[in-house]
Specification:
Distance between the termini: 40 Å
Structural class: mainly alpha
Radius of gyration: 21 Å
Shape: globular
Length: about 425
């Protein structure tokens, strides 16, 4: 299933990057800021769907609606021809929300289906399947764009989403036959720091609420838990630094590569390199790091890599170091940090997985994007086009220190939960008294 989810994302992302650079590297941050209202509306809609649908229906609805939207952009591109450039900024903003939601929903389902011990064992290999999807999706998009034009890439994306729906339906039916209910396991916790309790998550929707109440519920769940707020801060800092790197990339590529075709080709090769590195990390590093180092130290790897990479770019701000750094960062995020981060949700309730997690993975993440874009715009305004890189690296160094501290705190909290201690064969700490 994750293979097809990531194939859909990989086919859309190169188009988004090329459109953003064509819009202008000096105005790119405005497109990023424009994505935030799209994410706000999508987050509210997602929370409302969670309150009214089962897990199986939720996946089908979200993925098929996204596929229909992709086909809508295809129709607009074919109908408008050269005038479709007016639609391209809308596509850029929509892809930002789309990439977050389809991936976040998949991991939420996995955290709902598997208990904490299975998360440790399986999230790495599952993520490797997604990396293969990135390779196949990017390659398919590249071939289709060359043979049939850029518009055909939309078809690749939509078909991959529909395939993900069919695979998920087969998985749910198989789990029902083998277990007599809708999932292998689940988690339900009255307090955010306690261990999980099994529930039937596949066939039972969450509380029946209005659209507005469902949207607010996810934010309230997030603000009511220090643990979830810590995850939110971690994701915010991840997104902020990723956006700074994305905008630095736009500045360097715009000055070194001319033409939309060569730029698109460069972005495609970066995707392929990152996917290859990611696959190796997922197969040989992800599980070993989590088992030997624990969650906190594993979460610190990408923050430390980010600070080091920006320091190198400060000394050598050229294409080759950029390609290596961006590829390593993406590979570390997908192969190491993402599986470790998703295990943080294995000890919270199903409601928190679907509602608070959707807020964290979309609204909080895009909030980090917006903050990064505003910071970069402020740096350009104050320092100008010649001296912008030094203050950006200074910002990343400060953020990196906070990022590492949050990673260690989250790892201690997650690995110290009663359920996790039991699953690792260590003595459980005293249970927290219920209020």
């Amino acid at each position: 299933m994750f293979f097809f989810v990531m194939a859909s994302c990989a086919s859309a992302r190169p188009l988004r990057d090329e459109i953003g650079l064509a819009f202008g590297e000096q105005r790119l941050h405005w497109l990023v800021l424009g994505s935030l209202p799209v994410v706000l509306g999508a987050t509210a809609l997602f929370s409302w769907l969670v309150s009214r649908t089962s897990r199986r229906t939720l996946v089908a609805v979200v993925y098929r609606v996204c596929a229909l939207v992709v086909l809508g952009f295809l129709g607009a591109t074919l109908a408008l021809g050269e005038s479709s450039r007016f639609v391209e900024p809308i596509f850029f903003m929509w892809v930002g929300a789309f990439n977050l939601f389809v991936v976040s929903l998949f991991w939420a389902v996995m955290a709902d289906v598997f208990d904490a011990e299975r998360c440790r064992r399986l999230f790495g290999p599952i993520a490797a399947g997604g990396t293969l999807g990135v390779l196949v999706g990017a390659a398919s998009a590249g071939v289709m764009a060359t043979v049939a034009g850029r518009a055909s890439v939309f078809v690749v994306c939509a078909c991959a989403l529909e395939a993900a729906v069919w695979v998920h339906g087969s998985l749910e039916r198989g789990m029902q036959r083998s277990n007599g209910h809708g999932g292998l396991s689940g988690a339900e916790t009255p307090e955010p720091w306690q261990g999980p309790r099994p529930i039937d998550g596949a066939s039972t929707p969450l509380d029946d609420e209005t659209f507005v109440a469902a949207a607010v519920a996810g934010v309230r769940r997030l603000l009511a838990s220090r643990y979830l707020m810590g995850i939110g801060v971690f994701v915010f800092l991840t997104s902020l630094t990723a956006m700074l790197l994305y905008l630095v990339q736009a500045q360097i590529v715009a000055g070194a590569v001319e033409g939309r075709g060569p730029r698109a080709s460069l972005f495609a090769w970066m995707e392929v390199l990152a996917a290859c590195l990611t696959l190796g990390g997922q197969l040989w590093l992800s599980r070993r790091l989590l088992e030997r180092w624990g969650t906190g130290p594993t979460l610190m790897i990408v923050p430390l890599l980010t600070v080091a990479g920006f320091s190198v770019l400060l000394i050598v701000p050229t294409i080759m170091p950029l390609v290596v750094f961006q590829s390593l960062r993406r590979a570390g995020n997908q192969a190491i940090m993402r599986p470790a981060r998703e295990t943080l949700f294995s000890v919270v309730s199903r409601t928190e997985k679907y509602r608070a997690k959707s807020v964290i993975d979309t609204l909080v993440y895009r909030g980090g994007d917006a903050c990064g874009a505003l910071l970069f715009a402020a740096v350009l305004f104050v320092a100008g086009r010649e001296g912008w890189l030094v203050p950006v690296v200074a910002i990343v160094a400060v953020v990196g220190a906070l990022w590492c501290a949050v990673a260690l705190r989250l790892g201690t909290a997650r690995d110290g939960s009663p359920h996790t201690h039991a699953s690792m064969g260590r003595g459980a700490p005293p249970a927290r008294a219920e209020s």
